[in-house]
Design a protein that fits this description.
The complex is a heterodimer. Helix content of chain A is about 85%, strand content about 0%. Chain A has one domain. By secondary structure, chain A is mostly helical. By secondary structure, chain B is α/β, with parallel strands linked by helices. Chain B is built from nine helices and ten strands. Chain B has a single domain, classed as P-loop containing nucleotide triphosphate hydrolases (Rossmann fold), CATH 3.40.50. In chain B, helix 6 links the parallel strand 7 and strand 8. Classes of the chains: A mainly alpha, B alpha/beta.
Amino acid sequence: MFKISKYIVYDILRSRVLIAYTLFLFVVSFALFYFEADSAKSIVSLLSVMLIIVPLISIIFSTTYFYNSYEFIEMLVAQPLSRNTILLGEFVGVSFSMIAAFMIGIGIPVLMYAATSTGFVLLLSGIVLTLSFVSIAFLASVVMRDKAKGIGLSLMLWFYFAVIYDAIVLAILFSFSDYPLDKAVIGLTALNPIDIARIMVLMKLDISALMGFTGAVYKQFFGSGFGLAYTSAVMLVWIVVPLLFTIKVFKKKNL
Amino acid sequence: MDKIVIEASKYAEQNQQSYSKMIRTENIEKHFGKLHVLKGVNTSFTAGEVVSVIGPNGSGKTTLIKIILGMVVADKGKVFFDGKDVKKDFSYRHHIGYMPQIGHYPENMQIGQLFSMMKDIRKAASHLDEELLNEYKLASMFDKPMRTLSGGTTQKVSAALAFLFNPKVLILDEPTAGLDPLASEILKAKILKAKSDGKLVIITSHIMSEVEEMADKIMYLFEGKINFYKTIAELKNETGEEKLGKAIAKIMIQQAHV
């Protein structure tokens, strides 16, 4: 399995898109730390950038890469390898490359300017976010046979998680504002990996007090040890479940 | 008493047969959407033969090959390799060398990298067959990326890869299409050599003269079913034709009239 990953990593490291992604993250995070003396504020700004860019690039790049390596997969399937090995090898290779880009682009500046527990949580949430969106991208790629449709589906999924989902949550909060919603809201956040990542970092920042009563509920729940276990578990589900579905579909796929 | 002896010898014969059968398919069915590509294919291939699978475009030749290789999953039916069901066990592919109709390879990879990767993946360092690699002089092009290769050179790479690991079974999908005359002569000689080494070679081809040169048996697929599966001598006898192309054309015309 890792043999396959190795060749994929070699291949991706030469990709210009990945280099551009790394450079972009690096420049943005450096600029944010450089121009803002308070590193906590920089982390908040960096978080907003990260929550948009990391899922977007992870999902689009992985989907495109999966379709481009279709020939490679086709070749491997005729070899004495199980399909699980091929798919997991592919997943590990792509994830490793994306995480490497993230750690160079955001990891190095954060470790230089804000090597605090908040900084570490930011990096951790970025890594799990990358993993879950690579996983979702793989699912979209095996479900759709056509490359254009696959990339379209990935874009729609990203748009849903990054933009539409928040609108839906707001609409729910607004229309049911007469009812106690704090617990429901906690449940709702689990349905979106981006929200979970955001909460993981915000809880570390002590600015939840600004978010009013719900913020207090959040802090009470997510700030606790149980809350941390809960967010970690939910993130893990967002990585593993799409991957399991991908494996299931890929096993029956005609190449 | 006699009866028992006959029964026993019959049983032994059957056993003998099932041992020499390298690949056997049982009732293979495949749909692609509404298209019914294979309609219950029962067949077997014996070691030491060259079998040519022929049939019109879209008759299911490549699909059958891909099902045997496990690249396409059949809706129904089973494939046995050396008597074992291949469904759960992928290791039978150690014994197969496959040359696709159109080779798709990672574009950025160089020829040399491709070969070293395949050796790495198949973990078969011993007993490599680099004859085609040498005869096609591929080593001199090892630093060329796959995307810059012509169709013919890609075919040479595919052929060299199929033979590289000295497999018991070779599955070649239109092997000589796109090869220049010299290269295809080299490949044909290699195929005949593999046959004399007791290997099973399955070839699909549209070029009848080539089929006649190499094949022992011909399997004719038509609309997802095996129309006939006979030796070349049988075919010529039945039709009274000298040339294989004409013999097959005659059979096809006869069937069209029935």
